[in-house]
Amino acid sequence: MVTRPTPGTNRTGETQLLAPSYKYIQFNTSTVIARLTLNHAPHNVLTVPMMKEIAEAIESLNGRAEIKAILMQSSQAAFSAGISLEDSRPDKVFQTLDAFTRVFQAMVDISKPVIVVVNGPAIGAGSELVGFADVVLATPKAKFAQPEVKLGVFPPFAAVMLPALIGPKKTYELILTGEALSAEEALRFGFVNKVVPETELKKTVDALLARISEFSGPVLEVTKRVIAGSQGLPLKDAMKKSQDLYLNELMNLEDVHEGLRAVIEKRKPVWKNK
User: Fold this and answer.
1) Fewer CB under 10 Å: which end of the chain, C or N?
2) Helix, strand, coil percentages for the chain (3-state, nearest 5)
């Protein structure tokens, strides 16, 4: 059962939204980085209720300008073992795909950068979940596999998404054989951004989040929308879309003017996230 967000107050007496309580994930929005932790022991198997929680948590961040990015990680040894066998049955597959689609749509639609940390196997839908991230940090313990063919089915999202991420040839190989992609191979094919030793993972993640936290939340949102919304468009259309967002949305932000003033005055900008 999900407890809905409730109003609270911070140390300055300002009203703020407290994160709801979930059963299968941990969700913390007490800082400018929203932290979503997959927490379904022992392997983060994705059930319909768990996927509903993930989607609802991400969707709840729409309109919250103070949140600058989303960090998705796992509290278990595996990042995710994929969809549960129970929810893969023919009589339940419609509801499963519906919940699955809602998660990925939430990740695509949210204008905040989504950073995913993988320190273990990401299998099936777990690997597809990683594929929808904006930035992926992994350790050598990570591996990515689409073994659905072994169960007599195919991965509906990976089949569409992977060719653009790792190329059609490697996509055919992974999906038709069910073989896993190591962390280093994933790095080479552009599926992950960095592979770091497990001992350096926290430091690397903290440094990335600290850097992102330095910037204006709304500026980051518009920037992500340009990058995400331009993919697949003809160059002329993509340039037009970028120009429209730059002139009609970016230039209306208070933080844009603050950033320019800060450069002129040779000081660090004070963002209002407006």
Assistant:
1) N
2) 45, 20, 35
Burial 38-50 (b: 16+ CB within 10 A, else e): bbbeebbbbbbeb
- In tens, the pLDDT along 208-248 reads 999 999 999 999 999 999 998 898 889 999 999 999 999 99
What is the amino acid identity at position 195?
Answer: V
Could you tell me the CA-to-CA distances from 189 to 104, 169, 170 in Å, in that order?
Answer: 21, 11, 9
Burial of 163 (0-12, 13-18, 19+ CB in 10 A): middle
Quote the CA–CA distance of 199 and 197 in Å, as a whole number. 5
Separation CA 34–CA 116 (nearest Å)? 12
Q: Which two tokens stand for residue 148?
A: 């659905």
CB of 228 closer than 8 Å to CB of 108: yes
CB atoms within 10 A of CB 128: 27
Q: In what order do the strands lie in the sheet with 25-28?
A: 25-28, 33-38, 69-74, 114-118, 135-138, 194-195
